[in-house]
Amino acid sequence: MSDKPMKTATKIVSLGRDKKYSMGVINPPVFRASTIVFDSMEQMRHAARHKHNGEMFYGRRGTPTHFSFQAAIAELEGGVGTALYPSGAAAISAALLSFLKAGDHLLMVDSVYEPTRDLCDKVLKGYGIETSYYDPLIGAGIAELIRPNTKVLFLESPGSITMEVQDVPTLARIAHEHGLTVMLDNTWASPINCRPFEMGVDISIQAATKYIVGHSDVMMGTATANAGHWDQLREHSYLLGQTTSPDDVYLAARGLRTLGIRLAQQDKNARTIADWLLTRPELDHLRHPAYPSCPGHEFFERDFSGGNGLFSFVLKDGSNAALEAFVEGMEHFKMGFSWGGYESLILAITGIDRIRSATRWDSSKPLIRLHIGLEDPEDLIADLTAAFERYNAVMGR
Ligand SMILES: *Cc1c(COP(=O)(O)O)cnc(C)c1O
């Protein structure tokens, strides 16, 4: 093997396909297991000593199906180890519970995925863990919010729905000056479009449900840690009982192999749609990290190597009836939660002001979130043109 570092596209194809996992077939097979049997007590002792090194010990610790996928994600994200979870939400809760205890304080980004906010307010609070929310664009101002008992700084960049991009290196540097653990929900970038560990993140989380799985048919989460945080993340997640089905991991690993090409195409398609939206008189502004109207756009330009199909746009005005007319009756865009599959999705999102507390959101201007799939953008533009006609008819224009 040469010493030359592999390019990302090559990594996506080759990582995790070591023969010790794959037995020589292309896709590492599905190993279903609870019990693993041993021939001797010495063999059991050996397995116990090496249970973190890709040797089978007990089903909950994983099988080669899991080890292969974990190795691939850890290397792509740039960390030392990856733990798997049955959903992105489980990855987030297990990561937080692994590093917080009663009496601790958590700094959470205001534009976080709504169920993460609810976890803080409805579950962690009851455990005696206090959460403060901070403006995603606070930058160096984060220092003023750090208390003696602050233990974790949690980022999500870009934020859910409103898409603010954070200055991750600045936030991580200040957090580390105060001894905090820095966690990032890195789902939008996927493991290939930014380098979280080079920016100072300690734990990078993926809702693998989205682009890694890529086909809208499996729930899964991953949390990848650096050397200083891997042992605790792995062991606490294990003790919290987190485990994943090998069939699901097989599908996620299969999705991973086309991640790069799907993301590149969906990014291109999304920018075609975004460019077209800029020509629409109804548009107030785009919330797409690659466009200057998105808060934190400069950090996207600096820290990301590409985008994907998910972005939002804000209309100048619109009644509930007009929004309904917009999103109902689409031909190609389907209405539904989640994103990251190969298909296009649309959501009119109202009440954003209710899920923000450190920042203000003007709910008089409606927001629509699009996920652009692999369809031909011309068909999607025709679909959106008809949607604007329905919307304008209700608005009396
Ligand atoms: C979807 C999502 C999650 C949760 O993932 P699930 O697999 O649905 O539990 C977490 N963070 C972000 C940013 C998401 O979009």
Automatic annotation (TrEMBL):
GO biological process terms held by the UniProt record: L-cysteine catabolic process to pyruvate; transsulfuration
GO molecular function: cysteine-S-conjugate beta-lyase activity; pyridoxal phosphate binding
Keywords for this protein: Lyase, Pyridoxal phosphate
Documented EC number(s): 4.4.1.8
InterPro entries with a match to the protein in the record: Cys/Met-Metab_PyrdxlP-dep_enz, Cys_b_lyase_bac, Cys_met_metab_PP, PyrdxlP-dep_Trfase, PyrdxlP-dep_Trfase_major, PyrdxlP-dep_Trfase_small
CC cofactor: pyridoxal 5'-phosphate
PTM annotation (N6-(pyridoxal phosphate)lysine): residues: 210
Involved pathway(s): Amino-acid biosynthesis; L-methionine biosynthesis via de novo pathway; L-homocysteine from L-cystathionine: step 1/1
Catalytic reaction equation(s): an S-substituted L-cysteine + H2O = a thiol + pyruvate + NH4(+); L,L-cystathionine + H2O = L-homocysteine + pyruvate + NH4(+)
UniProt-recorded name of the protein: Cystathionine beta-lyase
Species the sequence originates in: Shewanella cyperi
